[in-house]
Amino acid sequence: MTSGGDAPGMNAAIRAVTRAAISKGIRVKGIYRGYKGLVTGEIQELYTDSVSNIIQRGGTMLKTARCAEFMTPEGRQMAYDNMRREGIDALVVIGGDGSLTGARIFAQEFNVPCIGLPGTIDNDLFGTDTTIGYDTALNTIVEAIDKIRDTAASHERLFFVEVMGRDAGFLALNGAIASGAEAAIIPEYNTEVDQLEDLIEHGFRKSKNSSIVLVAESKSKGGALDIAERMKTECPEYDVRVSILGHLQRGGSPTAHDRIIASRMGAAAIDALLEDQRNVMIGIVRDEIVYVPFTRAIKNDKPIKPELLDVLRELSI
Ligand code: ADP
Known about the structure:
By secondary structure, this protein is an alpha/beta fold. The protein has 2 domains: 10-133 and 254-299, Rossmann fold (3-Layer(aba) Sandwich); 134-250, Phosphofructokinase domain (Rossmann fold, 3-Layer(aba) Sandwich). Helix content is 43%, strand content 16%. It has helices spanning 10-23, 35-40, 73-85, 97-110, 134-155, 170-179, 192-202, 224-234, 256-274, 294-299, 306-315; strands at residues 28-31, 43-46, 91-95, 114-118, 158-163, 183-185, 211-216, 240-244, 280-285, 288-293. α4 (97-110) links the parallel β3 and β4. The longest helix has 22 residues, at 134-155. It is elongated, with a radius of gyration of 21 Å. Bound molecules: adenosine-5'-diphosphate. Adenosine-5'-diphosphate binds next to α4.
């Protein structure tokens, strides 16, 4: 199943899981709409040709959803009953932090082998260098910022561009480096107020006629609109604009990198099950496949390399 927020490369992962399993003599069933489909029994057998012509497509052919019922013991019992009825012995869940939390709880309650694949553009799962969808989203952000820069430069404006990340700054920070932006305001470092103050204090480079600052969305700390409001009050001399990239970051055809990691991770999920691994997320660290226990993948905040902030600062003078 795919569950939670969709990410480019989920289809490549579905294809890989399906074909790797079939090539090893294992039957595969697709569960539609994440845990919702497990609770309601929306399940269909997948064959090699069920996953033809999807590797290049964004989104997920299995659909995805959020399922409140699965958060309750009664809902999970229904899910387990459906699993048994369908003859499903193990689950492969492709999703983010929430989906893998659900898998961990379900696996514990019913002693079901579950393997997770990190499917999220946010790159916020611990124990893997990258997640399926992250590279595509990063490239989408860079493409969008290249366009915003034309207006920023022509009108001599300061743009705050809000990107996704759900309390993780990977997209904002690496997006800023890749697009040559002035700065990134990310939840991992200080508060936004501190980071903004820092920017104002050091001054945006005078010789530049425009500036672009990436802001990681943050439920707890506010986003680009809040920062722009403060900027307008405290530094009225700047012509401030906000652009929130929103859902366009989640779509599109996956990059080669995302297709490759999704394919490798999908195949590794079947290897893991055959090795009697259970309740682990498949990760890739230094280009090698690793198994990360759910508890490690979910609970730990994945650190951002301070070096990246240094590079951004150094190169934006
Ligand atoms: P993501 O996987 O993208 O982080 P969500 O956080 O929305 O997405 O989680 C997806 C689904 O995973 C939820 O709708 C729910 O069905 C399941 N889930 C999340 N957290 C839990 C939990 N603590 N217990 C059981 N199921 C959960």
